[in-house]
């Protein structure tokens, strides 16, 4: 009888699924197309939602100009260039969106595609996610950071704001010449097929390494991928980003939740104030940016060294950068 019971137990154990280790293997991802009000018209915003089993926190991630949601999950070297994977492995869900006008999202007239309207669209994404998650964070890169700040300031519906690749003090001496690399998307061989109006811009061929990656390694695989997947940005987004993120009237002044700023010392937004924030150390960055977050109860910082504006492509600092963001969001 005891032998039969042991055999039955062994058979049952063989049939039961073996628990998988806590990893991205337990994460479920889906493409989500959300109808959103965008100014006075309705558009559709695309997002890639990845939810680890049991996740209670979600980060809504907004890419910068000429990038799509893929900026948060870069398919080179299978792992270190993925913010999405790092967050999911830590049990945090992610919703990486394509800004309206780019990627798989709707493409209205470029004059409509500005920071306030983008923030309105992201707000509606957050409202859709709220019932499912107890904590919602909004984060962005570059123009995406301006959108994240505008959303948090206007709608006050998030628990924290992640700002990357954007400060309130710009080194215009370096930033303005870099903008001369932008051309109307209708003049680009691949993007011209989209039929966009002349207010949509992209980078001229062969300029992305100098504009976005230097002084990081000139990795041909990385630069080729970046060129082949480049997207668009509207002129209206540039103008409203400058108006809403500068030192005169920043949208961030009314953000009333914790903020984390992650910058790279080689960026157009770092330097010697007022020509760039002081990114010489995390503490210096906090001192430099804190005045622009007057109502935020807390400002944390992390500084990347040795890479350019799009430092999600960097591998040298990836683990520390991701760990800092994970630690920050867990402390909220």
Order of helices and strands: HEEEHEHEHEHEEHHEHEHEH
The order of strands across the largest sheet is 1-2-4-3-5-6-10-11
Low-pLDDT runs of 5+ residues are 1-24
Count all strands and give the number.
Answer: 11
Instruction: Figure out the total of helices.
Output: 10
User: Termini, distance in Å?
Assistant: 56 Å
* Average pLDDT rating: 92
C-alpha geometry = globular
Helix content: 25-40%
- Helix/strand-derived category reads alpha/beta
Reported for the largest beta sheet, the result is: 8 strands, mixed
C-alpha-based Rg, rounded: 21 Å
In percent terms, what proportion of residues is strand?
Answer: 15-25%
How does this structure look, described?
The protein is an alpha/beta fold. The chain has ten helices and eleven strands. The strands form two sheets. Strands 1-2-4-3-5-6-10-11 form an eight-stranded mixed beta sheet, with helices on both faces. Helix 3 crosses helix 4. It is globular, with a radius of gyration of 21 Å. The relative contact order is 0.14. Residues about 1-25 have low confidence and may be disordered.
Please tag this protein with its features:
three-stranded antiparallel beta sheet; disordered N terminus; 10 helices; 332 residues; single chain; alpha/beta; globular; eight-stranded mixed beta sheet
Strand-helix topology:
Layout: H1 2-15, E1 27-38, E2 41-52, E3 57-62, H2 83-89, E4 93-97, H3 115-129, E5 135-141, H4 143-155, E6 160-164, H5 172-179, E7 182-184, E8 200-203, H6 208-213, H7 220-228, E9 233-234, H8 235-245, E10 259-264, H9 282-289, E11 299-304, H10 318-330
Parallel strand pairs: 3-4, 3-5, 5-6, 6-10, 10-11
Antiparallel strand pairs: 1-2, 2-4, 7-8, 8-9
Helix pairs in contact: 3-4, 4-8
């Amino acid at each position: 009888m005891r032998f039969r019971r042991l055999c039955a137990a062994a058979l049952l154990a063989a049939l039961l699924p073996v628990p998988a280790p806590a990893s991205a293997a337990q994460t479920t991802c889906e493409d989500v197309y959300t109808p959103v009000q965008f100014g006075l018209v309705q558009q559709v915003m695309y997002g890639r939602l990845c939810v680890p089993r049991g996740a209670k926190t979600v980060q809504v991630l907004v890419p910068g100009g000429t990038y799509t949601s893929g900026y948060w999950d870069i398919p080179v070297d299978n792992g270190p260039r993925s913010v999405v994977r790092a967050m999911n492995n830590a049990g945090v869900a992610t919703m990486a969106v394509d800004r309206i006008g780019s990627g798989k999202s709707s493409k209205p007239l470029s004059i409509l595609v500005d920071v306030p309207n983008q923030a309105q669209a992201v707000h509606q994404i957050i409202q859709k996610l709220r019932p499912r998650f107890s904590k919602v964070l909004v984060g962005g890169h570059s123009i995406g950071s301006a959108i994240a700040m505008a959303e948090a300031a206007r709608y006050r519906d998030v628990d924290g704001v992640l700002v990357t690749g954007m400060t309130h003090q710009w080194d215009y001496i370096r930033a303005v010449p870099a903008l001369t690399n932008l051309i109307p998307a209708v003049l680009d061989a691949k993007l011209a097929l989209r039929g966009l109006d002349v207010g949509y811009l992209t980078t001229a061929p062969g300029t992305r390494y100098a504009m976005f990656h230097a002084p990081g390694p000139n990795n041909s695989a990385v630069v080729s991928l970046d060129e082949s997947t480049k997207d668009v940005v509207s002129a209206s987004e540039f103008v409203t980003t400058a108006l809403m993120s500068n030192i005169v009237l920043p949208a961030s002044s009314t953000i009333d939740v914790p903020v984390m700023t992650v910058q790279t010392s080689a960026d157009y937004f770092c330097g010697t104030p007022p020509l760039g924030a002081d990114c010489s150390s995390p503490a210096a960055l906090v001192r430099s940016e804190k005045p622009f977050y007057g109502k935020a109860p807390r400002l944390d910082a992390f500084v990347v060294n040795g890479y350019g504006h799009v430092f999600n492509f960097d591998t040298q600092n990836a683990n520390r950068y991701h760990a800092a963001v994970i630690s920050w969001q867990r402390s909220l």
